Hints:
Elements: H1 2-22, H2 25-47, H3 51-66, H4 74-98, H5 106-124, H6 128-152, E1 156-158, E2 162-166, H7 167-186, H8 197-225, H9 240-262
Antiparallel strand pairs: 1-2
Amino acid sequence: MLQQRVLTAVVLIACCVAGLWLVPHWAWTLGVSAFFTVGAYEWARLTGLAGGARVAFCALVAASVCAPLAGLPLAWTAAAWAAAGVAWAMLVPALLARAAAVRRASMPMGWLVLAPAGAALAWLGQTPWVLLSLLAIVWIADTGAYFAGRTFGLNKLAPSISPGKTWEGVAGGVAGVALYLFVLQWSGAAAGGPLSGAAGWVLALTLTALSVLGDLFESLVKRQAGAKDSGTLLPGHGGVLDRIDGLTSTLPVAALAMYLSMR
Length: 263
């Protein structure tokens, strides 16, 4: 299982790198839109959207990701990133605490989860090294949590939502990100980017915390749907939502921070 998981991750990273450096930005954006549309389909299936509502939802997510290509002002997209950031910081913790039925607000919640993140991934693709440095935070946090949880995990993080997640795993993820950022700043690789200086530490730790929320929220949706995985497209990982759960909560905030720093 671990070998299959690693192999799939390597293929996804290779596709990501190729998309960032070998194709024009519009093609990268369309690729991101297609990937997130698959995630939208999985969300619709998990939350009970069917027929025309499912098609409309997937089309809305795809169009939202591609909107800047059609000339939508970036400020509008940044407003969506801000709304998503507020939702992840305030609304989602409340939903998790109450184990609220997500399907009651399937379409608006699904759009808020997927569209701003997809648009952020597409926009940040214009600065490949910056994007990869930000994506690495989520990947390292996820990997650190996986191994620390398996080795030391005793205290459950949210047993009613995701029994496998532990506080020790969270600590392992934070430690991994801290080491990563230390090396990045010590080597000078973070200079001039969003992960430089004290602000870089604030952003990195914020994204680490948000990645946990994204993971837990997707677990809540799957548990309410009675599903182990969101799909079967990615061997060893499950579906697209299983792979981007931590990105849905972190990318909007990362893109907003980048946007504000540019202004």
